[in-house]
Amino acid sequence: MPDILLPIIALLSGFALLIWSADEFTENGAKIANIFKVSPLIIGLIIFGFGTSAPEMLVSGLAAMDGNTGLSIGNAIGSNIFNIALVLGISAIVTPIVVHEDILKKEWIFLMVATLCAGLLLSDGYLDVTDGLILLSLLVLFLAYTLKEAQNKKHHTFEDLEHVVDKSQTKKTWIMLVVSLTVLISSAKLVVYGGVEIAKFFQISDLIIGLTVVALGTSLPELAVSISSVLKKQFDMVVGNIIGSNLFNTIAVLAIPGLIHPSNVPEEVLSRDYPVMLLLTVLLFVVSYKFGKKHIINRFEGVVLVSIFGFYMWQLF
């Protein structure tokens, strides 16, 4: 089976480099922000939010440029499904997660609105430039709202992250930022190439590859961040990271194929994939919100989320 070997190597090495470079890019971006005395809030919102969603954005953009919009759309929706069903599910099984009520009252509502808007835009079976611009305007609204909220709060989520940088390290930090961004773009290209070639070889649609292999690969940074956060009992970061990442996927990653390569939305997205993403977004609130009690996602609810993921994967194949 020599024809398939190179795409598999490209896909696996692409994922490994993608995870390393996303982590380095986020870390060095935070250091640069610190050197220039940028507020911790902007670091948390822009650098960490963009950092964990950068793989999805780049893979989506490069796939759309090559005309593989099924892979782009599949990557955005598949990553959201992975984040809630698998990342949050596994995290809750490891340690029950305490959820801050503010996240459910504000950020979750924004995610729900974005998910419903995305569904409306996809419902005509075509994703075009207008749809992309509407999604991007939601992103601008979300960023503006988050910045305003952040200015009202004295604390921030990332207090424990050490980014105290010696001025002598500035040059090295800039070099690492550029290197990691270059590797990030190159590794995303490898993932797209590997994914498309594997899809062709096994005669699977690029949508399925986007929903499964590529979505899993680009969701690995979220999984790593979430597992390490629950082990450190930083529960706000777990749910915040997942909601933030899903928001970026819904309004930024999904906008990319519309802006770059307007095309038809595969029928299965509307009949199978989008409804699962919507159901999981609703379930995120259901398992988190406990009336009159402490909001905790327990191990049983974690098992339910992972079971839904298993059933969905079975449906795909």
How many strands, which pairing sense, and closed or not: the largest β-sheet?
2 strands, antiparallel
Shape: globular
CATH architecture designation: Up-down Bundle
Number of strands: 4
Corresponding CATH superfamily: NCX, central ion-binding region
Gap from first CA to last CA:
22 Å
Spans where pLDDT lies below 50 across 5 or more residues: 154-161
Number of helices: 12
Structural class assignment: mainly alpha
Give the helix proportion (percent range). Answer: over 70%
Q: What's this model, at a glance?
A:
With 317 residues, the chain is mainly alpha-helical. It has 12 helices and 4 strands; from the N terminus they run αααβααβαααααβαβα. The protein is globular, with a radius of gyration of 19 Å.
Layout of secondary structure:
Elements: H1 2-35, H2 40-65, H3 69-94, E1 97-98, H4 101-105, H5 107-122, E2 126-127, H6 129-151, H7 170-201, H8 206-231, H9 235-253, H10 255-260, E3 263-264, H11 267-288, E4 296-297, H12 299-316
Antiparallel strand pairs: 1-4, 2-3
Helix pairs in contact: 1-2, 1-7, 1-8, 2-3, 2-6, 2-7, 2-8, 2-9, 3-8, 3-9, 3-11, 3-12, 5-6, 5-9, 5-11, 6-9, 7-8, 8-9
Features:
single chain; 317 residues; mainly alpha; A middle domain of Talin 1; two-stranded antiparallel ribbon
